Amino acid sequence: MESVLLFRVDDENEAELETARLHWHVERDRTRCRDQLVIGRYSVLPFYEALEEELSGRGCRLINTLAEHKWIANFEYYEALRDVTPQSWTEEDFDSADDGPFVLKGRCNSFKHAWSELMFARDKAEALTKATMLRQQQVIAQQGLLFRRYVPLETFGHTSSGLPISNEWRFFFLDRRLIAYGYYWARQARGIPSAGIDQAGIEFAQSCAARVASRATFFVADIARAANGSWLLIELNDAQTSGLSAIDAGLFYRELRAACEAK
């Protein structure tokens, strides 16, 4: 089945679109997709199920099925990977948590750039207060709120809101195949000493991918080095919705093409 990129462009990713076109057949109109494997770039939300159904009617399929997408987006992956990611609680089971500190976020999105105001809580009382504030944010209310154990990371500095700029890396995978990886905080880290990832970090990301690949096809693993030197999975994302961070777009789309052709 021929592969196609379904790309939704905006001011921030226009250059990425032009690079993608050097390596891919790109469509911006979903109605032009016919009998193809469709890889969405910024184009599958907010109506994933409707898009999948519409494309199916024209003989197409999305790289991630709705079930695969939900497994990631609804934080269902936690049970399969809880030994390599910070301990987490939903609103329903937060009463069972020990005291903090905590990080608060939606199942997919966070208000990380309001770190001190909305994301970090020193204890349960503060977490509950900030949870009330977060529930007023529509995107979080729709997803459902998570409380995650705050784990100190190897950190190089902080933004004006107190957000730690850590040694965090974004890895793209197609099945178990590593497509590309890059430093997550590249935009925010100007003037901050360069982060580095060792072979142990790369192998850790690959070990996570080996566990994910039976449940999702095209995904991102964001990993970070903890202050104690170990590597942690910070979160998974559907790769169709994930920005490239510091990854070179030409490398990314060239390797993604090769991986699709090898499937």
Task: Give a short synopsis of this structure.
The chain is α+β, with helices and mostly antiparallel strands. Helix content is 30%, strand content 26%. The protein contains 9 helices and 14 strands.
Describe, in plain words, how this protein is organized in 3D:
The protein is α+β, with helices and mostly antiparallel strands. It is built from nine helices and 14 strands. It has helices at about 15-20, 50-55, 65-75, 80, 115-120, 125-135, 140-145, 200-210, 250-260, and strands at about 1-5, 25, 35-40, 60, 90, 100-105, 120, 145-150, 155-160, 165, 170-175, 175-185, 220-225, 230-240. Strands 2-1-3-4 form a four-stranded parallel beta sheet, covered by helices on one side. A four-stranded antiparallel beta sheet has the order 5-8-6-7. Strand 3 (about 35-40), helix 2 (about 50-55) and strand 4 form a beta-alpha-beta unit. The longest helix has 14 residues, at about 200-210. The model has no long low-confidence stretch (mean pLDDT about 95).
Classification by helices and strands: alpha+beta
Q: Would you count the extended β strands for me?
A: 14
Query: Tell me about the biggest sheet?
Result: 4 strands, parallel
Strand percentage lies at: 25-35%
Radius of gyration (Å): 19 Å
Q: What low-confidence regions span 5 or more consecutive residues with pLDDT below 50?
A: none
Distance between the termini: 10 Å
- The geometry reads as globular
Continuous helix count: 9
The percentage helix is: 25-40%
**What is the string of helix and strand elements?**
EHEEHEHHEEHEHHEEEEEHEEH
Name the strands of the widest sheet in spatial order.
Answer: 2-1-3-4
Mean pLDDT: 94
